[in-house]
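dumping the sequnces here before i forget
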Amino acid sequence: MKGKRLNIGIIGYKFMGKAHSNAWAKVGQFFDLPATPVLKVACGRNLNNVTAFAEKWGWEEVETDWKQVVSRDDIDIIDIALPQHLHYEIAVEAAKHGKHIFCEKPIAMDVEQATEMYNVSEANGIVHYLNHNYRRVPAIALAKQLITDNVIGEIYHWRSAYQQDWITDPNFPLSWQLQEEYAKAGPHWDLNSHAVDLAHFLVGDIQDVMAMTTNFIKERPLANPDCVGSLKVEAISTEKGEVTVEDAALMMVNFKNGAVGSFEATRFANGRKNKLSFEVYGSKGSLTFNLERMNELEYYSEQDADGVKGFRTISVTEDVHPYVKHWWPAGHIIGYEHTFVHAAADFITAVSEAGSIAPNFKDGISIIEVLEAGLKSSLEKRVVSIK
Amino acid sequence: MKGKRLNIGIIGYKFMGKAHSNAWAKVGQFFDLPATPVLKVACGRNLNNVTAFAEKWGWEEVETDWKQVVSRDDIDIIDIALPQHLHYEIAVEAAKHGKHIFCEKPIAMDVEQATEMYNVSEANGIVHYLNHNYRRVPAIALAKQLITDNVIGEIYHWRSAYQQDWITDPNFPLSWQLQEEYAKAGPHWDLNSHAVDLAHFLVGDIQDVMAMTTNFIKERPLANPDCVGSLKVEAISTEKGEVTVEDAALMMVNFKNGAVGSFEATRFANGRKNKLSFEVYGSKGSLTFNLERMNELEYYSEQDADGVKGFRTISVTEDVHPYVKHWWPAGHIIGYEHTFVHAAADFITAVSEAGSIAPNFKDGISIIEVLEAGLKSSLEKRVVSIK
Amino acid sequence: MKGKRLNIGIIGYKFMGKAHSNAWAKVGQFFDLPATPVLKVACGRNLNNVTAFAEKWGWEEVETDWKQVVSRDDIDIIDIALPQHLHYEIAVEAAKHGKHIFCEKPIAMDVEQATEMYNVSEANGIVHYLNHNYRRVPAIALAKQLITDNVIGEIYHWRSAYQQDWITDPNFPLSWQLQEEYAKAGPHWDLNSHAVDLAHFLVGDIQDVMAMTTNFIKERPLANPDCVGSLKVEAISTEKGEVTVEDAALMMVNFKNGAVGSFEATRFANGRKNKLSFEVYGSKGSLTFNLERMNELEYYSEQDADGVKGFRTISVTEDVHPYVKHWWPAGHIIGYEHTFVHAAADFITAVSEAGSIAPNFKDGISIIEVLEAGLKSSLEKRVVSIK
Amino acid sequence: MKGKRLNIGIIGYKFMGKAHSNAWAKVGQFFDLPATPVLKVACGRNLNNVTAFAEKWGWEEVETDWKQVVSRDDIDIIDIALPQHLHYEIAVEAAKHGKHIFCEKPIAMDVEQATEMYNVSEANGIVHYLNHNYRRVPAIALAKQLITDNVIGEIYHWRSAYQQDWITDPNFPLSWQLQEEYAKAGPHWDLNSHAVDLAHFLVGDIQDVMAMTTNFIKERPLANPDCVGSLKVEAISTEKGEVTVEDAALMMVNFKNGAVGSFEATRFANGRKNKLSFEVYGSKGSLTFNLERMNELEYYSEQDADGVKGFRTISVTEDVHPYVKHWWPAGHIIGYEHTFVHAAADFITAVSEAGSIAPNFKDGISIIEVLEAGLKSSLEKRVVSIK
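..and the predicted 3d for all of it:
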C-alpha cells in the first residue's frame, strides 16, 4: 500500500461492475500509483446479488441504496457501472457531495443531462472521467502519439465501423438495450459513442453530420426486466414488444479541419463479435486498427523508401509502447480488461495529483452532440451542423 | 479458328486499349468460343501511335477517324476504349450502324447520354456491354452465386470502399481525370460507378441516397493535354489550374429491399493502390472481398456448427469456381487483366448467340442515376430519392 | 471464500513469480472453484525484493529459505516459479513433504531429474503440474477438442516454429538463458519444450528425431548474475564470455502414428517477438495457430461444400469455447496471463478433488526425452530413436 | 516485329505447353525485346492433339517426332515442356544441334543427367535456361534485391514449405507423378526443387542436409498412361498399383555461409492448393513470401524507428518493382502465368545478346545435388554433405 488511500464506492455489479472491480483490484499490482484504491463499498438493488459480488471481488461492504453511498464521508470515488439512463442522477448527486467520478459510457441520455453532469462536476472541483476505455488500448494510444508527432500529416479520412452480431436471431428478446427508455438509441448510442470519441481523440472536432438509421426486426419476445445491465438476457414470454431503437446506423461527417469521416454501427453483422475498426489516411501516412486484434496497429508511411512501402503490422506489445511496460514481455498480448486497468491507473493518478483526465464529461457532451445530430439528421433526412 | 469470324474495331489505344486488346488476343486460347474474334482495325487520332499499337497487338489495320470505323460494313463489333466524355457520340453512331458495342465504363457523362445510348442500341437490336469488369472476377461471381443460392439470406448491409492514392502528391498534375469536362466527376464517377454496379449486382436496386464530397487540393500544375486516356501524365507548366472534380466522395443508401449501404471513393488513401473492398452481411452469412487480393473471397456461415464459426478465406482458384477451369490448377492465381478476358468470352458468346449480356447500357443508366443523385445530395445536403 | 482453503507457498518472484501470483489472485474472481487458493508465503533469496513482491501481490508472509517453506505444515501447494536448474531439488523435497506442486517449465535439466521428480511425486501421492500453459489457450484447447472429435481425421503433418528475436543484438549480454549450467540448452529447451508438449498433446508420441543446432554469436558481454529468472538483464562488463547454448534448433520427427513433424526454435528471427505457430494437416481438415494472435484458430474442413472450402478464422472468444465463459462477451479478447489463470483453476480443482492434471511430471519426462534425443541427434548427425 | 526472328520449337503440349505458349505469344506485347520469338513448330506424339494445340496457340507447324524438330536448321530455340524423365535425351540432342534451350523443371532424373546436359550445352555454346519460374515473381525478385542491397544483413534462417493437397483423396489415381520411373521422386523432386532453387538464389550454397520422407497412402488405382504431363488424370481400373515416390519430405540444411534452413514439401496439406512460402531472417531485417498471395512481400526492418517496427506488406505492383512496369498500374495484380512471360523476356534477351541467364543447367546440377543428398539422408538416416 502506497500513498493516500482512496475509498471507492461502486454502483452496479453486472458486466461493467465486474470489469471495473477487476481493474481496481489489479491496478496496484501492475502500476506504481501515487495512491491506493480501496474497494470500499459495492452497491446494488438486490442485496443477495451484490453481497455475492462483493465477496468475490473483495469489496469490503455492501449497500442497496446508492444515495447512502454517494453521501458517505469516507468515500472518495464513485464508480458508476450502470446503464446510461441511470448515470445522470447519480453523477450529479455524487458530484454535489464532492466525490470524484469514474463513469461508464455512454455518458447520458441527452446533451442536457451531460451538460449538467459536467457543470456540477466542475462547480464542485471533482475529477470526472468518462470510460471510453478504448483510448487506452496501447495500439490506439500509439496511434494518437503518431498523429501528435505529425508522422501521419494532415488527415484526410476517418473511416470506422463498429460491428456486432448478437441480435441477428429474431428470437433474441427485447433486452433493455433495445428499448429507448433505457438505452436512448441502439448501436448509434452504444457503439458510435466509442467511435465518435476516438474520432475526436485522433482527428478532431466534427462540424456537420449526415446519418441514416434503420430497423431490420421490429418486434421481439419480451425479456426479463432484471436483465438491465447484464449480458445474459432471457425471454420471459412469447408475447412480443416493439423494438424502439435502431438496429443499425450509418453516419458521414465533415471535421472542422477539413477531413471527412464515416461511421457505421450495427448489431447485424453476422460473424463480427466486437469489431471496432478504423482507418486514418493522412498526407504522410495511414493507420488502421481492429479491436478484435487489439494488440496490433497497422501503419503505412509515405516516407519509407520507394519499393518497400507497405502497411506494417506493429505488435504493440513492446516496452516502448504506451502502457505496455507494466505487463509482459514483447509478443505476450493483453486483452480487453487491461484497458480498464489503464483507465484506473490514470484516474487514480489524476485524483491523487489534483489533475484532470480525458475523456471526461466535457468530452461526453461533445460526443452526445454528434450523436444527437445524427439522430436528427436521420429523422430530417438532411445535413445537421454541430453548433 | 472456330465458327463465325467477328471483326472488331477498337477505338482508343491507351490504358484500356491495351487491356482490351490483350483480352481479344487471348480469349480464344483459353475459352472455347462459338465465334472467333478478329482484331480487324485499331483507331486513334495519332497515326504513329496507333500504328505502333496495332503492330504490337496484331490489329490488322489502322484508322484515325472513328466515323470511318463505325460505318464499315465488315466490322461487327465496336470496342470503345476511351474516356467517358467520348462514349456517347461514338456509341450512338455505332449502334445506328448496327454494330455490337463493348464499351468501357463509366458509361457516359449523364443519364440523358446513357439513356439515348441504351434506346438507340435497343432500337437497332445490337448487343451492348458496359465493361464493369469486376463482376467477372471469379470471387465476385462466386459471391453472386452464394447470394442467388440464398446461403447469405436476407441482406442487411453493404459496406464498400474504393481507395487509391495516386494524387496525394500536391504536385501531381491536373490530368484529365481531375477536370469535369472530361471526367464529369472524380472518384465518385470513376470508382463509385464500379462499386454501385457491384451493389446493384449483389444486393439490388437503390431507393435513396445521401452523399458528401470534398476537395483536399484545389489547384494543380497544368498537364499535357495528350494525357487523356493514358496513365502517364506529365506536368507541362508550373502554372496551376483548378481541380474541378471532387477528391473524395462518401455515400449512404437505402436499398429497395431494406438493406442499407455505404460507399467511399477516394484518391487520397495513402497506401491503397487499387483497393476496392466490400462487405455484405445477411441473415444467414456474410461475405467480404478486397480487389488487391482478388483471388480470395471471405465467407462466414451462420449455419456452421457452434464453436467453429468464422470467416473462411476461399481461394477462388478451383475448377468449381466461375471462369477458373479455363486457366490454371488450383492455387495458381490470376490477375487484373483476366477479368477482361472473361468479359470478352461472355460478350462473344452473347453476340454469336443473339443474346444479351450484363452489365449493359440499361445497367449503366441505373448506375448513373445513383451517381447523379449522390452529386445532387452532396450539393443540396439532403437525401435524394432515385425515381 | 468457498470450500477448503489451500495455502500456497511460491518460490521465485521474478517474471514467473508475477505471472503465477496474478493467477492465484485472480482465479477465484472468475472461476467458481471447489477450494480457495490462499497466497500464504512468498520465498526468495533477497529479503527486500521478496518483501516488496509479497506486498504488491498480497502474499501474507515472506521467507528467504525455500526449505523452510516446503516443510511447513500449513502449506498445501508449492509453486516453483524459478528457472529450470532449480526445479529438481525443490520439487523432490516438496513432494517428500507431501506438497502438491505447480511447477514452471521446462521441467528440469535432464531425464534423470525429471524421472525422479515424477517418481517421488507419485510415491507421495501428490498432484503435480508442469506449467506448459499454452495447452490452456482457448484456441489450443479447441484444437484438441476438434482432433479428439475426429473432425481433423488421421493426422499427416505437424509443422511448428517458436520464433523470438530478443538476442539478435550481439551486445545483448550473456544472460542465464545463454549458459548451459543454468539453462541446459537454448531455445531447444526453452521454446521447443512448449512445442513438443503441444505436439504430444495434439498429435501423439514421437518415435524418432533428427535435429540440428547452431550458434550465430559465440561470445557476449558478461551479465549481472542477479538476472537469473528476470527479464531485465544488464551487461556488467565489456569482458565477454562464451555462449554455451545453441541460438537456434531445427528438428524433424516421426510420430508413432505415422505423422511427420517439424520444429524450429530460435531467438534470431527479427520481427518475431513470441511467435509460437503450428499447423496440423489431417485427412479431414487442418488447423493453424499463432500465439501472437492467440484468440484465433484457423480451421479448414474438407467436409465443407465444394466451392466454399477455405481456412476459417475462428474468434475463440465465445461462451461455447473452452474457458471463455469465465471471461468477457464474444469478441472481447483475453491475453497471455489468462492461460495461467486457467492452469490455476484446473490445478485447484485437481488438488481439491484428489484428481490429477496434465501436463504433469510424466509428460515432462516425455518432453525431455525428445529434447535430449534432439541434442544427441545434433551432435551425432543421425536419427535418434525415442525408447 | 522487331529485330531478329527467333524460331521456337516446343516439345510438349499439356500443362506446361500451354503455359509456355502463352508466354511466347504474349511477351512481345508487354516487353520491348531485342528479337522476336516466333511460334514455329509444336511437337507431340499424338498428331490430333498437337494439331489442335498448335491451332489454338498459333504454332505455325506441327511435328510428332522431336528428333525432327531439334535437327531443323531453321529452329533457334527448343522449348522442353515435358516431364522430367524426358528432359535429358532431348536437351542433349538439342544442344548438340546448337539450339538454345528453354527447359522446364526439375532439370532431370539425377546429377549425371543434369551434368551432361550442362556440359554438352556449354560445349556447344548455347544459352540454357531452367524454368524455375518463381525467381521471376516480382516479389521474389524484390526479395533478391533487398538481400543483395544488404538491407537484410547476414542471413540466419531460411524456412520454407511447399504445400499442396491434390492427392489427399485415397482414390486419386496413380498418376505419373506418383511413379518413380517418370518422376524420380514425389514432392521432394517436384516442389523442393523450386524451394531449393529459391534458397540458392536468396541465401546461398548448401553444405549439408538431413531429410526425412514418408508415405501416407501406399497404393492407388491405376491411371490412364496418357496422363503423363497432364493435369487431368483418370483412373482406368479398380486395380491398384504401388506408389513409388514419397508423399511428403522434410529437410534441414546448413548453408555454407552459416545460415540454417528448413524445407517441407507435401501433397497432403489439406486446404493448401499451391502454397510455396518462405521466411528469411537476417541481422538487419526479415522477409516472408507466400505464393498464394504472390503479389505481396512482407518485410521487417530492424532499422525502423523504435515503436513502429513491424512486418510491412509491400504490394509489389508498382513501377519501381521488378518486371511490373510492363503490366498494369499499381494495385492491379498479376498472376501465375506472368512469371513465364518474364522468363521468356529474359531468355529472348539472353539469346539475342549472346548472354546467359539464370537459373540454368549449372544451377540445375546444384539443385539436384541437394535433392539427391536429401534422398540419401532419408535412406541412411544421417547427415549427408554436399561435395
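The longest helix of chain D spans residues 361-380.
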